[in-house]
C-alpha cells in the first residue's frame, strides 16, 4: 500500500513539473478571449506587431497573476488591500510558478547606488577586504600588523643567532597627573626598580643609586623587565614569553627588545605603525553608504563642489608647455606656469607630454603644488578668498563645477579604508575597474593558502556575478558607474545577471525585450544566458522582436494580426520552422517573403557638414568626426563603444549650447564647426513625455485641444454653459475632484510598492457624471479617451485639426495607443515615437538637426518599415537625422554610417570606419560591417 502511494506521489510531482502553464479566456486590454499553453522549463518567445497585445499577455496577465498569488500568501495587513487589487480578466489559469519580471526600468534613482552595489559585488568585496586585506602604512609602505608574545619570539628566533643576549623593556609611563619622580616611585613599588639607558646600556638601580629624577631624560631610558639569552628550548621560551607578557601589560600594549650592543626592536599589541594608529578592517569600514565608512568630506558621493578639472584642462591632448592649463594662459597668472616649468626642470617632470598621458604623481604636483610653484588647487583657494572683487568672482565661476573629492580622491570611502590592499590594489581602485578587468583581476588574484581558505566562498560569489555580467554583454561598465546613469536595456541585463547569480529554480521569468541596446554581436551571449536560466529548471517567457532570439526559442507565440483593436488574437503557436511557413506578418518577414528593401541609392546630402573635433569625454580617443548634412546618419558600434558619449553628451550638448539654450555638462572636445548650416536642433530620446499620470498622447500632441473644443461646441454643452475647460482633467471644473482627474488613487504600502486602485467616485472615468452626459456622435469624453489612435482617426474623420495630429501617431506605428493612456505607462520606445509624431505634425520649415536614440526599441519589422518612412519624410523635407542604432534594417537604410569601436569601454572610443553601408560592410575590423554583409 505504502509503496503504491510513494509511486503515485512521484508521478504526481513529476507531472506537476511537466504540466504546462495554461491560460484560458484572457481578455486583458485588447486580448480577445484567447487561450495559450506555455510549456514548463522551456524558453517561449511572445512576438507580434507593436500594440498587438504581447505585454498584455506576458506581463498584465501571466506575471500579474503570479504576483497576485504571491501577495495572497502575505500577512492579513497586506490582504486587506488585495480584494481591491484587480485580478487579471481571465477565466482560468493553471500551473503558474512564482513569477519574476525583468523589465527595462532604470533600477535606481539613488545617487549612491552603483553597478557594484546593485549586483552585490561591492558587498562581497567589502567582506573580502575585511577578511584578507593587508593594511599598508602610507609612511613606510610596510604592512601594519599586531604583535603578540608568539610573533615576537618567532621574530627573535628567525633573525638572531642562538645565545644572543638581549633585554626585555617597556617605556617609562607618562601620566598627566604625575611627574617623573612619582612615576619612578610607582615603578619601584611594582617591583621594576631598574632602568636601562638605550644609548650606552648602562643600568640605573632606583633603590640603591643616588638618582636625581631631574637628571633623567625619559626618552633615553626604558624600564628593564628581564635580561635573557636566546635559546630554542622550552624553558627559555617560557621565560621569554612571561617577560614579554609583563612588558606588554605594563607598557600599555607596547614593549621593546634591546639586543646587547645592537638595535632596539619595538613591538606593539595595538594595530599601529610609524607612529600612526590604524583601524582594523571591518566590512562597514568599506561602505560609502554607512556613516562609519563614508568619507567625511564628500559624505560618500566621491565628488564635491569645487573646481572642475574638465574646465581647467579643456583640451587634455595639449601639453603643459602648449597651454593645457587654461587659467594660467592669461598674462595675469602666467607666472604660475613659469614657476611650474622651473620646478619641472629641477625634478625632471615631463612638460611636453599631453596632459592626459601624465602620471598620477606629476598630476598631484601640478594640482597640489611644490616648492615655489603654488599648485592649481591652492591657486583657486586664493582666488576664492578674494571673492569681494567682482573680476575674481567671475574668474572663479568660470572654472567652478564638481570635482573629485580631495580627501578620498573620489573613491567615496574613509581615508584609512584605502590603506587596506589586496594584490597592491585598494577597494576604490578595484571599484574603478570595468567588469571585464575586474573579472580578470579576481580570476588571477594571488593569495596564500590560508587566505585562499578564508576567502574561498566570497571569491566564488564575486567571480560568479562578474562572469554573468560579462556574458550579458556589460563588460565595459565600471563597478562604480552610477545605477541612475544606466540605460533601460543595461538595467534589465543587470537584473538578469542578478537572477542568474541567485540560482533560483522552478521560477517563471518574464522578460521585456532584453536585446534592446545590444549589438548583434552580443545577442548570442544573451541567448546562451537565457538558455542556461532555462536549463537549471526555470520557465522563461520573453517578449521580443529580435530574429536571433525568436530563432533560439523552444516555443513561439505570435500575437496579432495587427495592433490595438485589430490585434489581441493568437496568430500562431509552435516552433520556429512552423512560424516560417505560416502566413503571419512575423513569419513573412523571417522567411524573407516580405522585407524592408535596401534603398536603391544613397542621398547626396547638401554638401555641408558639421565637424566635431577633439572629442575625448569618457572613453573617446580625441575623435574628429564629420556629420554630413541632409542625410540619414547612423552611429553604430558595440554596446559601450562611446556612441551616446559622442552623439548626446558631446555633439548635441555643444550644438545646443552654441544655439544658446543649454546649461548642462558638455562632453570634452576642442570645437564644433558648421553649426551655421542648421537652424535648430531636437533631441528625440526615450525619456517619458510627461511625469504626471495625467499626461498622455492626446494632450502631448495637442490633439486633445481640438477634442475639447468640439465637445464644448455641442448643443448640450451650450445649454449647460460648459466651456472647453470643463472637458479638461487637469483643472478643476468638470473633472472628478476625488482623484483630481487621474482616474486612480494611490495607496501607500509600508513594506512594498504602492498600490494603484481605480477611483471609487468616478469609476476611473476622470470626470463628473454631468460632464459625462455630454455626447458627440454618441460618445462622451471618457469614451474618446478610451479609443485607440486608429479608432479616433475613423471617428473624427471630418475634423482635420484633430486627425492631422493623430495621423502622424498612426504613421510612426502607434495607432494602437489609447488617446488617454497615461504617459508613465508608455515604454521608452513608444515615448520616443510620440515625440517623433509631434515633430512630423509641424509644418516643414527651417533646417533642423534631429537626434534619435535607438528608435526601433519595441518595434516589429512591420513597424520599423513605417518608422523608416517617417525618417525619409524628415530628410526629404530638408532636415538631417542622426540615429544611434543597432537594428540592421535601419543601418542598411542609412545614407552615411559612423562606426565606433572596435570594442566597448577602454577598448572602444575610436572611429572604425565611416561611409555608406556598403563601404562599412567591407571593413574587416568592424563588427557592424560583418553583420551588415548578411543583409545587404
From TrEMBL:
<keyword id="KW-0227">DNA damage</keyword>
<feature type="domain" description="ABC transporter">
    <location>
        <begin position="257"/>
        <end position="592"/>
    </location>
</feature>
<keyword id="KW-0677">Repeat</keyword>
<dbReference type="InterPro" id="IPR003593">
    <property type="entry name" value="AAA+_ATPase"/>
</dbReference>
<dbReference type="InterPro" id="IPR013815">
    <property type="entry name" value="ATP_grasp_subdomain_1"/>
</dbReference>
<comment type="similarity">
    <text>Belongs to the ABC transporter superfamily. UvrA family.</text>
</comment>
<dbReference type="InterPro" id="IPR041102">
    <property type="entry name" value="UvrA_inter"/>
</dbReference>
<keyword id="KW-0862">Zinc</keyword>
<keyword id="KW-0479">Metal-binding</keyword>
<keyword id="KW-0238">DNA-binding</keyword>
<keyword id="KW-0228">DNA excision</keyword>
<dbReference type="InterPro" id="IPR004602">
    <property type="entry name" value="UvrA"/>
</dbReference>
<dbReference type="InterPro" id="IPR003439">
    <property type="entry name" value="ABC_transporter-like_ATP-bd"/>
</dbReference>
<keyword id="KW-0067">ATP-binding</keyword>
<feature type="compositionally biased region" description="Basic and acidic residues">
    <location>
        <begin position="11"/>
        <end position="21"/>
    </location>
</feature>
<dbReference type="InterPro" id="IPR027417">
    <property type="entry name" value="P-loop_NTPase"/>
</dbReference>
<dbReference type="InterPro" id="IPR041552">
    <property type="entry name" value="UvrA_DNA-bd"/>
</dbReference>
<keyword id="KW-0863">Zinc-finger</keyword>
<keyword id="KW-0234">DNA repair</keyword>
<keyword id="KW-0547">Nucleotide-binding</keyword>
<dbReference type="InterPro" id="IPR017871">
    <property type="entry name" value="ABC_transporter-like_CS"/>
</dbReference>
<feature type="domain" description="ABC transporter">
    <location>
        <begin position="596"/>
        <end position="933"/>
    </location>
</feature>
<dbReference type="GO" id="GO:0016787">
    <property type="term" value="F:hydrolase activity"/>
</dbReference>
<protein>
    <recommendedName>
        <fullName>UvrABC system protein A</fullName>
    </recommendedName>
</protein>
<feature type="compositionally biased region" description="Low complexity">
    <location>
        <begin position="1"/>
        <end position="10"/>
    </location>
</feature>
<keyword id="KW-0963">Cytoplasm</keyword>
<dbReference type="Pfam" id="PF17760">
    <property type="entry name" value="UvrA_inter"/>
</dbReference>
<dbReference type="Pfam" id="PF17755">
    <property type="entry name" value="UvrA_DNA-bind"/>
</dbReference>
<feature type="region of interest" description="Disordered">
    <location>
        <begin position="1"/>
        <end position="21"/>
    </location>
</feature>
<keyword id="KW-0267">Excision nuclease</keyword>
<keyword id="KW-0378">Hydrolase</keyword>
Amino acid at each position: 500500500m505504502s509503496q503504491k502511494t510513494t509511486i503515485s506521489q512521484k508521478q504526481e510531482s513529476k507531472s506537476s513539473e511537466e504540466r504546462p502553464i495554461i491560460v484560458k479566456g484572457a481578455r486583458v486590454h485588447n486580448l480577445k478571449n484567447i487561450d495559450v499553453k506555455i510549456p514548463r522549463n522551456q524558453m517561449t518567445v511572445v512576438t507580434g506587431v507593436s500594440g498587438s497585445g504581447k505585454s498584455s499577455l506576458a506581463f498584465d496577465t501571466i506575471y500579474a497573476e503570479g504576483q497576485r498569488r504571491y501577495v495572497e500568501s502575505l500577512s492579513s495587513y497586506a490582504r486587506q488591500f488585495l480584494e481591491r487589487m484587480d485580478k487579471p480578466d481571465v477565466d482560468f489559469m493553471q500551473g503558474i510558478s512564482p513569477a519574476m519580471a525583468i523589465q527595462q526600468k532604470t533600477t535606481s534613482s539613488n545617487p549612491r547606488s552603483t553597478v557594484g552595489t546593485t549586483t552585490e559585488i561591492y558587498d562581497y568585496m567589502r567582506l573580502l577586504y575585511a577578511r584578507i586585506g593587508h593594511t599598508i602604512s602610507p609612511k613606510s609602505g610596510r604592512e601594519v600588523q599586531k604583535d603578540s608574545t608568539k610573533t615576537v619570539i618567532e621574530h627573535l628566533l628567525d633573525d638572531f643567532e642562538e645565545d644572543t643576549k638581549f633585554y626585555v623593556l617597556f617605556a617609562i609611563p607618562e601620566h598627566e597627573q604625575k611627574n617623573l619622580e612619582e612615576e619612578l616611585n610607582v615603578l619601584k613599588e611594582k617591583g621594576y626598580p631598574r632602568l636601562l639607558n638605550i644609548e650606552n646600556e648602562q643600568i640605573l638601580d632606583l633603590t640603591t643609586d643616588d638618582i636625581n629624577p631631574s637628571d633623567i631624560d625619559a626618552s633615553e631610558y626604558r624600564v628593564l623587565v628581564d635580561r635573557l639569552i636566546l635559546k630554542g628550548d622550552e624553558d627559555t621560551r617560557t621565560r621569554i614569553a612571561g617577560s614579554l607578557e609583563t612588558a606588554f601589560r605594563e607598557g600599555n600594549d607596547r614593549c621593546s627588545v634591546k639586543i646587547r650592543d645592537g638595535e632596539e626592536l619595538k613591538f606593539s599589541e595595538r594595530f599601529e605603525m610609524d607612529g600612526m594608529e590604524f583601524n582594523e578592517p571591518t566590512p562597514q569600514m568599506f561602505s560609502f553608504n554607512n556613516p562609519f565608512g563614508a568619507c567625511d568630506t564628500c559624505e560618500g558621493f566621491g565628488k564635491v563642489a569645487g573646481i572642475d578639472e574638465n574646465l581647467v584642462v579643456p583640451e587634455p591632448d595639449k601639453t603643459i608647455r602648449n597651454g593645457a592649463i587654461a587659467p594660467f594662459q592669461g598674462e595675469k597668472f602666467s607666472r604660475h606656469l613659469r614657476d611650474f616649468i622651473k620646478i619641472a626642470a629641477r625634478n625632471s617632470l615631463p612638460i611636453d607630454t599631453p596632459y592626459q598621458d601624465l602620471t598620477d604623481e606629476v598630476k598631484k604636483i601640478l594640482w597640489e603644488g611644490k616648492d615655489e610653484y603654488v599648485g592649481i588647487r591652492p591657486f583657486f583657494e586664493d582666488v576664492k578668498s578674494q571673492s569681494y572683487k567682482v573680476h575674481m568672482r567671475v574668474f572663479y565661476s568660470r572654472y567652478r563645477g564638481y570635482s573629485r573629492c580631495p580627501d578620498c580622491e573620489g573613491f567615496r570611502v574613509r581615508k584609512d579604508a584605502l590603506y587596506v590592499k589586496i594584490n597592491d590594489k585598494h577597494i576604490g581602485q578595484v571599484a574603478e575597474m570595468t567588469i571585464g578587468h575586474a573579472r580578470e583581476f579576481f580570476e588571477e588574484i594571488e593569495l596564500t593558502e590560508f587566505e585562499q581558505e578564508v576567502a574561498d566562498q566570497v571569491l566564488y560569489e564575486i567571480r560568479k556575478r562578474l562572469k554573468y555580467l560579462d556574458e550579458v554583454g556589460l563588460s565595459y561598465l565600471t563597478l562604480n558607474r552610477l545605477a541612475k546613469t544606466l540605460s533601460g536595456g543595461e538595467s534589465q541585463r543587470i537584473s538578469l545577471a542578478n537572477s542568474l547569480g541567485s540560482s533560483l529554480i522552478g521560477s517563471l521569468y518574464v522578460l521585456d525585450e532584453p536585446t534592446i541596446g545590444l549589438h548583434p554581436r552580443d545577442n548570442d551571449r544573451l541567448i546562451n544566458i537565457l538558455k542556461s536560466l532555462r536549463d537549471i529548471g526555470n520557465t522563461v517567457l520573453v517578449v521580443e522582436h529580435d530574429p536571433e532570439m525568436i530563432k533560439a526559442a523552444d516555443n513561439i507565440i505570435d500575437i496579432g494580426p495587427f495592433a490595438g483593436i485589430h490585434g489581441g488574437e493568437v496568430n500562431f503557436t509552435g516552433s520556429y520552422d512552423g512560424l516560417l511557413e505560416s502566413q503571419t506578418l512575423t513569419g513573412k518577414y523571417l522567411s524573407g517573403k516580405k522585407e524592408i528593401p535596401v534603398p536603391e541609392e544613397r542621398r547626396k546630402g547638401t554638401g555641408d557638414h558639421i565637424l566635431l573635433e577633439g572629442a575625448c569625454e569618457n572613453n573617446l580617443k580625441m575623435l574628429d568626426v564629420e556629420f554630413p548634412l541632409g542625410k540619414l546618419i547612423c552611429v553604430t558600434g558595440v554596446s559601450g563603444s562611446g556612441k551616446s558619449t559622442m552623439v548626446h553628451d558631446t555633439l548635441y550638448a555643444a550644438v545646443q549650447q552654441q544655439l544658446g539654450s543649454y546649461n548642462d555638462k558638455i562632453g570634452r572636445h576642442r570645437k564644433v564647426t558648421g553649426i551655421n548650416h542648421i537652424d535648430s536642433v531636437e533631441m528625440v530620446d526615450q525619456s517619458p513625455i510627461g511625469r504626471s499620470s495625467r499626461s498622455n498622447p492626446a494632450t502631448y500632441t495637442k490633439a486633445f485641444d481640438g477634442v475639447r473644443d468640439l465637445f464644448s461646441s455641442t448643443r448640450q454643452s451650450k445649454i449647460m454653459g460648459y466651456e472647453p475647460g470643463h472637458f479638461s482633467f487637469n483643472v478643476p471644473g468638470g473633472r472628478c475632484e476625488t482623484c483630481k482627474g487621474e482616474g486612480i488613487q494611490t495607496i501607500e504600502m509600508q513594506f512594498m510598492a504602492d498600490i494603484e486602485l481605480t477611483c471609487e467616485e468616478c469609476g476611473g472615468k476622470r470626470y463628473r457624471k454631468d460632464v459625462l452626459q455630454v455626447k458627440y456622435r454618441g460618445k462622451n469624453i471618457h469614451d474618446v479617451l478610451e479609443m485607440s489612435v486608429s479608432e479616433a482617426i475613423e471617428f473624427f474623420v471630418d475634423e482635420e485639426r484633430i486627425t492631422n495630429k493623430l495621423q502622424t501617431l498612426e504613421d510612426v506605428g502607434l495607432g494602437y495607443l489609447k488617446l488617454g493612456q497615461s504617459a508613465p505607462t508608455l515604454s521608452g520606445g513608444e515615448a520616443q515615437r510620440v515625440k517623433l509624431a509631434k515633430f512630423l505634425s509641424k509644418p516643414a520649415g527651417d533646417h533642423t538637426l534631429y537626434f534619435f536614440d535607438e528608435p526601433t526599441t519595441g518595434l516589429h519589422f512591420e513597424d520599423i518599415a513605417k518608422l523608416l518612412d517617417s525618417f525619409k519624410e524628415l530628410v526629404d523635407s530638408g532636415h538631417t537625422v542622426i540615429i544611434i542604432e543597432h537594428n540592421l534594417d535601419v543601418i542598411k537604410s542609412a545614407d552615411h554610417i559612423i562606426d565606433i569601436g572596435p570594442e566597448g569601454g577602454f577598448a572602444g572610443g575610436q572611429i572604425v570606419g565611416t561611409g555608406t553601408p556598403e563601404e562599412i560592410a567591407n571593413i574587416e575590423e568592424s563588427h557592424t560591417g560583418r553583420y551588415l554583409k548578411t543583409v545587404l
